[in-house]
Amino acid sequence: EVHLVESGGGSVQDGGSLRLACSASGSASDDYDMGWYRQAPGNECEPVSTIRPDGSTYYADSVKGRFTISRDNAKNTVYLQMNSLKPEDTSVYYCVADRRVWETRYGGRCGEVLKRYLDHWGQGTLVTVSS
Hints:
The chain is mainly beta. The protein has one helix spanning about 110-115; strands at about 1-5, 10-15, 20-25, 35-40, 45-50, 55-60, 65-70, 75-80, 90-100, 120, 125-130.
């Protein structure tokens, strides 16, 4: 059983930075894609960024050039460095892991749909960006 625990959320001003971390415990595999989804009130559960075992990455258009994903396999941890944050980045951010993360947008609550479509998911961490 793999457990994902997010940390690093909080409140910042428009233009500020935060770094999220997701630590995987249990039978975590270096062969898994790891990444982040987010959900703002009233919005879909949307993919933000993914990093694959070979180091290749995916970024949503809305975060390209501002967010950077990285992973430390020795620590079973994935990071999301978020710079130039905007109020529209305000969301609950969820860490996910699966043999293949397809970066699909889902209707419904992230907490419910991620467990339906992905092998592993965290409980979420809130990021609030104020103007």
